[in-house]
Amino acid sequence: MIYLDNAATTIKKPQCVKQAVFDAMDRLGNSARGMHGPALAAAREIYAAREKAAAFFGAGRAERTVFTSNATEALNIAIEGAIKPGMHVITTEAEHNSVLRPLYRKARKGVKLTIVKADNKGRILAEDIEKAICPETSWLFCTHASNVTGNLLPLVEIGKICRGKGVHLGVDVAQSGGCIPIDMGKTGIELLCFTGHKGLLGPQGTGGLCVGQDITLPPFKVGGSGIHSFEKEHPSIIPEALEAGTANGHSIAGLSAAFDFLKETKVENIQKHESCLMRIFYEQVEKIPGVTVYGDFEAEDRTAVVSLNIRDYDSKEMGDVLWREYDIAVRAGVHCAPLIHRALGTEKQGTIRFSFSWFNTEEEALQAAWAVKKLAF
């Protein structure tokens, strides 16, 4: 199998990640639910993972990093907690439904929502975001990288604009975390939502939310916290405020090991390798008659994603053929990102998305390009 659906989830994980999950099954109890060895081991493991996540994203204090089940949960916690009726909020056409749907729900409850349009290459321009800001604007919530085109939003420039205008910045890094260096301090991000199972190379069922020092979020769900058990209200201090119930200690141990792997391997090296594979594939397919490629490939920095269509064939049918006849796993359809497809004119056809990982090879990239060529003729 040639697995090129890494933007959905990475299947090939570092051996240390798999081993960490396996070992945790035998040694971790319930964090903050006891003073015996296994419970304390779980608490230490989870806190160590907080420290690694905070350092990895330049988030500052470890206790401001909250673990969730995925980026979708993190985004719901962030948007539900930070945005109040009457606020003006900006987002973009590049967004995944994990950003759009919580914002649409807020819009139905009195939030004014502005959606910045993408150009014909799916790019979101910083100047268009700046034009959308008005005196009433409170937040900008946006993705770092499109899961359809691989285009990056200019976060450093956007962060400067937000700081200058007094606008808070929340960012979805599900597609870029582990693939592109990210620093909350340098970019001005105040709420950063990540998932563990994609570029971070960790287990499914992991994710998190890094909360800026000056941001307050109320509990999203309530219940057991391990502290203040006689109080009727859930604790308001982070991370307990946003982590009701038993933590996914076994998978967080795997995520912790993934952060170790990324630190040792270096994200810059991962970005270089994945970008090389993406360029090899792109340069082969973009010149095939009948193939249309979407996104900005003139940009120096982007994620290792290539979305394309073959003639007027249905993208899902082509994805099925790639799997059945060529043993190549890709994602086909609209990828839970409807607005960017409208901007690209692919809302009916969708796209076939090839996404590369640290564990893919040049041979696999060339083999996938050969399969596209065969299907185009």
UniProtKB/TrEMBL annotation:
Residues covered by the Aminotransferase class V domain: 2-364
Gene3D superfamilies named in the record: Aspartate Aminotransferase, domain 1, Type I PLP-dependent aspartate aminotransferase-like (Major domain)
A Pfam family assignment: Aminotran_5
Catalytic activity line of the entry: (sulfur carrier)-H + L-cysteine = (sulfur carrier)-SH + L-alanine
GO molecular function: transaminase activity
InterPro entries: Aminotrans_V_dom, Cys_dSase-rel_unknwn_funct, Cysteine_dSase, PyrdxlP-dep_Trfase, PyrdxlP-dep_Trfase_major, PyrdxlP-dep_Trfase_small
EC number(s) stated in the UniProt entry for this protein: 2.8.1.7
Alphabetized UniProt keyword annotations: Aminotransferase, Pyridoxal phosphate, Transferase
UniProt enzyme class: transferase
Cofactor(s) the protein requires to work: pyridoxal 5'-phosphate
Highest taxon, organism lineage: Bacteria
Family recorded in the similarity comment: Belongs to the class-V pyridoxal-phosphate-dependent aminotransferase family. Csd subfamily.
Protein name: cysteine desulfurase
Native source species: Blautia hansenii (Ruminococcus hansenii)
